[in-house]
Amino acid sequence: MLMVFSASAQARSPTPDQVVVAARSKPSDPVPLPRPRPPEIGQTDTAPSAPGGEAAPSASDQPPAPSPCRLALTDAVAIAPSIPPVKGPGACGGDDLVRLEAVVLPDKRRVAVKPAAILRCRMASAIAQWVREDVTPLAAGLGTTVSELDNFDSFECRGRNRVAGAKLSEHGRANALDVRGVRLANGRMLSLTDRNAPREVREKVMASVCSRFTTVLGPGSDGYHEDHIHLDLAERRNGYRICHWIIRDGTTEIATPLPPPRPQDAPPRELASREDVPPAQNTDAKQVEDVKVQPAAPPPALSLSPVPLARQPADVAKPVTPKPIVAKPDAHKSDTANSDEAGPAAKSSRRAKRAAREATAQPMQIVPDAKPANDKPSSARHAARRKTARAKARRGEPDLPRVLRKMFE
Fold first, then answer.
1. pLDDT of residue 331
2. Share in percent of the chain as helix, strand, coil (round to 5)
3. Which domain holds residue 184?
4. How far apart are the first and last CA of the chain?
5. Whole-angstrom Cα distance, residue 302 to residue 298?
6. Segments of the chain with pLDDT less than 50
7. Domain contains 407
8. Which of these, 195, 183, 189, lies nearest to 227 by C-alpha position?
9. What total of structural domains would you count in the chain?
């Protein structure tokens, strides 16, 4: 027994270099729990439970706090209820949006915005201040008040000038408004781009919008804003601003003025024929009859020449009167010429006198302008003289080709 006790005692007291493995004495012993989390690390966020056992709403479900602009844009300034944020493709849309329905004037009257404009709160506040502080005194100077603001375009998710693939417009960010004009209380529509509108009024409007907005585009800017004014609050580097609006009057950039209309009591114009007009007044200009056209007198009867029409020239015929040929004795011949030399000279003289008599009795004949083939070339001075003679004869004779064409039509 002693030996057994000693062995059991040695087993219960192991040496330092021996490893003791702990084991459960019974299967029903509980599993030990892990140590608690240190307090300096912090605890996980857990949603507190509501009194009724329901989970409290998270912070993302709660509406965001109103912006300072939204707190300042009260019903005493404008009727502009807030709308949810818009998230479109790309950077289209925005936060803190309102629907500007009317601007409230200091005397509690309302200037309707038709149609209502969807804008960012900052842009809507700038429009309201512009109408209250600038447009209203301007209308008072005209002896009336403002009743309506014509909204041409506000929020629209598109590129600049509606060009496909262009940079996103400020309209796509709800940061721009297009204005065509304002309607006054007397029913008159004051269009900001009307050439006939008072120039002083339009200049005052341009000065007011250019001082309030960072971008102002009107007629003469880029061809897309000829019938409205673009206003926005785009932010640029170093506070750069754009104000491009050319004030045009009705007397500038107009077409060539037309001549005054013909009076009703003016006498009718008459068309004169070429035969009745003197040569100095016979021009190629055509007279247009706008009241009554008087028919020209029928052409006089003419006797046709026996020359065939196919051989007649294209220009006007002229009479040809040959000059008498007078034989001149040569100076080198002496007075002692014999009778053989005097005989041919006398014959040529008689022949020339006979030709002169026949020419005086010969009727008018049509001779073509073309020179005969056996004609010798003459100098330029002689050609000019013949051309002048033909022109004088042409002015004094009727236009035979024209008369013939009228007869056979």
1. 44
2. 25, 15, 60
3. 80-244
4. 167
5. 12
6. 1-25, 42, 44-50, 53, 252-254, 274, 277, 280-293, 302-317, 331-340
7. no
8. 195
9. 1
